[in-house]
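A further point concerns the way the authors explain their paired sequence and structure data. For illustration, here is how one protein appears when written out as sequence plus structure tokens:
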Amino acid sequence: MGQSFRPLLGMRLVLFVEILVLTLVHHTLCIATNVRNPDATMSTVEIIRSRGYVCTVYHVTTEDGYILELHRIGLSSGRPVLLQHGLLSTDVDWITNPAGQSLGFRLADMGYDIYLSNSRGNTYSRQHVQLDPKKEAYWNFSYDEMGLYDVPANIEFILKLTQQPKLIYIGHSMGAAMFYIATASRPELNHKIDLMIGLAPVASMAHFNSPVKALAPHVDAIQFFLRSTRTRAFLAKENWSRRFQKSLCQHTFKTIQLCQNVIFYITGTGSENFNSSVLSVIEGHFPGGTSVNTLAQFAQGYNTGKREGEQFRAYDHGPSENLRRYGISRPPSYNLSLVTAPVYLFWGPGDLLASPKDIEWLSKQLGNLQSSVRIDWPEFNHLDFLWGVNSNRLLYDPLIALLPTP
């Protein structure tokens, strides 16, 4: 009975994952009015160029053979800035709002040399020197590898291209976690960073408070089923779930207000600061896909996060594989005291994904924290960092004030 029950349980759980993520997140990003922003069907490059900026495309190869697509805004000779998106996203996050309200464009207008990175496995970074993205081996990564390989490769590429000694790194959510893994694992990278800014930074997940945390205890069963069905990319655009979403999306909700209410049920309270006019753009680009292991690593972080010394650790492959990879049966934790680049944290009181308690823990671990800044808006949440209508005043203006001159 046990053998037959596990696949059945896994099937029910994975269907629950798909339904929850697609119904409560992705479907909520749809607009029933049929008013579509043209950016919804454009690529990042096309959006940048449609706004009147030059956009250059580069391809960066990591040590382990993944080919990442990097987008540059403009041709400035100013100080380079690397912007890294979060989980299930692409670099379009930084340019979705109108130009005067998007961090990527604002910094470019000020004379900074802007680079928008794309993590392995997302819409734009799905190539490898040997591995086929249609095969399981390509997807055998978590956000460990994004930090260990993607971040260093992008940093080294940009510095070589620009002949600059240092750059500014700004990461949202998982984009911040990737930086901490990179600089803790390769301390020499710290000397190549002017400063790092973490927006809604994720490290410890112990106090992750979104309703989707109910899935975390079942992560092993979900992974078992996904492996047995050879599921590779999670929530990629070509998946059946994405096509299903497309067929129902614009008929699911009757008002934008209802859409927003469900979004904030998952990411954080309040919708007054959310830019409803870009909902169709978000729907057109999100989710960008990632590996099953990446999602599982967040769940693992929540499951072990309250145990001392296990708040921010490497991916758990199981005792035997851990022993082979790490030399110990349990995955090691990252030593955040080795992150010695100057770090500023910006966090929202209403963020259910990067909770204030987890931010407090992170602040005490980092080796060179300059400041931990609470956004002065009680309901500022995980999405407001990218798409808030008041984010210039609440976030971007104070952030820009911290930056060295272009």
